[in-house]
Design a protein that fits this description.
The complex is a heterodimer of chains A (100) and B (321). Chain A is built from 1 helix and 3 strands, in the order ββαβ. Chain B is mainly alpha-helical and 321 residues long. Chain B has one domain: Ferritin, core subunit, four-helix bundle (Ferritin, Up-down Bundle), CATH 1.20.1260.10. Chain B has 13 helices and 2 strands, in the order ααααααααααββααα. In chain B, strands 1-2 form a two-stranded antiparallel ribbon. In chain B, helix 4 packs antiparallel against helix 7, helix 6 packs antiparallel against helix 7 and helix 6 runs parallel beside helix 8. The chains are: A alpha+beta (100), B mainly alpha (321). At the A-B interface, strand 2 and helix 1 of A face helix 4, helix 5, helix 7 and helix 13 of B. Bound molecules: fe (ii) ion (2 copies). The site of one fe (ii) ion has 5 residues of chain B, from helix 6 and helix 7. Chain B: Keywords: Oxidoreductase. Chain B: It comes from Streptomyces sedi.
Chain lengths: 100, 321
């Protein structure tokens, strides 16, 4: 994703998200260029769902995506790094307590 | 501006990511040479898919039955899709689509040498699916584990689709091989013409492929050219036997000791010539791609004008009227 709008007044870049089947989230599958969102949808259908890979498609202009900094070591994610008590394994409970 | 110490740390982190077989993602720091190598390789790969539509595309209207037409149409459409997945992957590295197209048309970026050979008869359609897509599969399966995430993910998608390509080709040949003597002759003739160019698809021998060691260290590539070529020969020989065709190589034989087939050396001088522009169809392929691009200009412009007009009519709620 890099907000490039293309030179020579080319078509903008869109990111494509496909829901594989009911009950699943939309998942990012790639990008494509199209003149507008409506065309991006039909192109996404032809490009990413030629073999029944999806039941629903979202497209969004790449330029409209706001993303966190790339590196997982980034301090952005630090707040969750030291909170072990958010995980069930943090708690010690006798082995003979059932269903917990 | 990153300081020198910053850059050292970023580079160390990059090397560690690659060495641990984790994926590099678009906005991660990466060495400029890694980025440039990937852009070149992915662009060349994308161009190959797009130019690769031409030899078979010629046969869509002439395929002998509606079934074969529909199959070939779907196959060629897949190749267009492969090109687009790959252009998308190249764009995550900061390459620009229009610029890549321009480089192809101006001959500043290459595509696979194999598509500069003509598809002379309908048997060629079968042989292209069997051997050319077969060789492409050999090359591409390991790329599903390439260190650059978007490239690897595009290759997963491509590889899923390629197996239909190879099977439809083999099935076509299988059908012809059980037809008339003339049809069997056509099959053998097509195999004779495509066998060596298919082996050249793996590139020059390892000793003459200096960049490939670095690509392997960066895990962009996972196997050497010669390893992949050997793998392809070993896979293909039994398929050829079953089909009843002869692969045109007098040196081809099973080597018990190595557990592999020995085979002759492709004419790498021919490969260099074809890559250099002097193949049977180079000029024709690029001219056709250029014409398609130029003839399509009004469609691209009209689509932009239409999109702009629609955007002007859109009200505040964002709903187009
Ligand atoms: Fe392909
Ligand atoms: Fe293919």
């Amino acid at each position: 994703m890099n907000g490039t709008e293309g030179v020579d007044g080319g078509w903008p870049l869109f990111e494509v998200f496909v829901r594989g089947k009911r009950g699943l989230n939309h998942v990012h599958v790639g990008s494509l260029r199209a003149a507008d969102a409506r065309m991006a949808l039909t192109h996404a259908r032809d490009l990413y769902t030629r073999r029944n890979e999806g039941v629903s498609i979202w497209v969004v202009r790449s330029a409209d995506v706001t993303a966190s900094a790339p590196d997982e070591r980034d301090p952005f994610f630090a707040p969750s790094g030291d909170k072990v008590y958010r995980h069930p394994t943090f708690y010690e409970i006798p082995d003979d307590v059932p269903h917990i | 501006m990153a300081t020198e110490a910053d850059e050292r740390e970023l580079r160390a982190h990059f090397e560690e990511t690659v060495a641990a077989d984790r994926r590099v993602e678009p906005r991660d720091w990466m060495p400029e040479a890694y980025r440039a190598t990937l852009v070149r390789q992915i662009a060349q790969h994308a161009h190959s898919e797009i130019i690769g539509m031409q030899p078979e595309g010629d046969w869509i209207t002439r395929a002998p039955s509606l079934r074969r037409k529909a199959i070939l149409w779907a196959k060629v459409q897949d190749e267009a899709g492969h090109g687009l997945y790959l252009y998308g992957a190249a764009e995550t590295l900061g390459a620009d689509r229009d610029d890549l197209t321009r480089r192809l048309l101006e001959g500043r970026q290459k595509y696979s040498s194999i598509f500069n050979y003509p598809a002379a008869t309908f048997a060629d359609v079968g042989v292209i699916g069997w051997l050319v897509d077969g060789a492409a599969i050999c090359n591409q399966v390991p790329l599903c584990r390439s260190s650059y995430g978007p490239y690897a993910r595009a290759m997963v998608r491509v590889c899923k689709e390629e197996s239909f390509h190879q099977r439809q080709g083999y099935e076509l040949l299988w059908t012809m091989a059980r037809g008339t003597a003339a049809q069997r002759e056509m099959v053998q003739d097509a195999v004779d013409r495509w066998w060596w160019p298919s082996l050249m698809m793996f590139g020059p021998p390892d000793a003459a492929s200096p960049n490939s060691r670095r690509s392997m260290a960066w895990r962009i590539k996972r196997h050497s050219n010669d390893e992949l070529r050997q793998r392809f020969v070993d896979m293909t020989v039994p398929q050829a036997d079953r089909l009843g065709v002869t692969l045109p190589d007098p040196e081809l034989r099973w080597n018990e000791e190595r557990g592999h087939h020995d085979f002759g050396t492709p004419d790498f001088a021919e490969l260099a010539r074809v890559i250099g522009g002097d193949g049977p169809c180079n000029a024709e392929r690029v001219a056709r791609r250029t014409a398609a691009h130029e003839d399509g200009a009004w469609v691209r412009e009209a689509a932009v004008a239409h999109a702009q007009r629609r955007a002007r009519r859109t009200d505040d709620s964002g709903v187009a009227r």
